Amino acid sequence: MAGFGAAIPLFVLVFASTYLSMAAADLAAFSEPLSHTDARYFTVTVFSTVGFGALTPRSEGARLGTTVQMIGGLVGL
C-alpha cells in the first residue's frame, strides 16, 4: 500500500508536466493557457473524478492525454 501512496505524487508530476508541455506547444490545446499551478489543478481534477470546470482539454492530443490519465485512475495506477 505504501508503494501506491508514493506513486500518486509521481503521477501528478508526470501528467501535470505533460499537460504543461502540451499547452506550451499548442495554445489551443486547453480552454486557457496553463501555468504550473493550472496544470497540477487540472491533473488532480481528472484523478479525483471531480469533473471539469473552466479548464478543459480542447485539442485531440490534450484529450488523448486526459483519457489515458482517466483510464489509469480507474484501474488504480
How many strands in all? 0
Largest sheet, strands/sense/barrel: none
What is the ordering of alpha helices and beta strands? Answer: HHH
Provide the structure class: mainly alpha
Helical fraction equals: 55-70%
Oligomer: single chain
Query: Which word captures the global form?
Result: globular
- Poorly predicted ranges: none
Approximately how much beta-strand content do the residues carry?
under 5%
Number of helical runs? 3
**In angstroms, what separates the terminal alpha carbons?**
12 Å
Average pLDDT over all residues: 82
Alpha-carbon Rg, integer = 12 Å
If you had to describe this structure to a student in words, what would you say it looks like?
The protein has helices at residues 2-25, 36-47, 60-74. The protein is an all-alpha fold and 77 residues long. The longest helix has 24 residues, at 2-25.
Question: Which properties best describe this structure?
Answer:
3 helices; globular; 77 residues
Could you give the topology of this structure?
Elements: H1 2-25, H2 36-47, H3 60-74
Helix pairs in contact: 1-2, 1-3
Short description:
With 77 residues, the chain is mainly alpha-helical. It contains three helices and no strands.
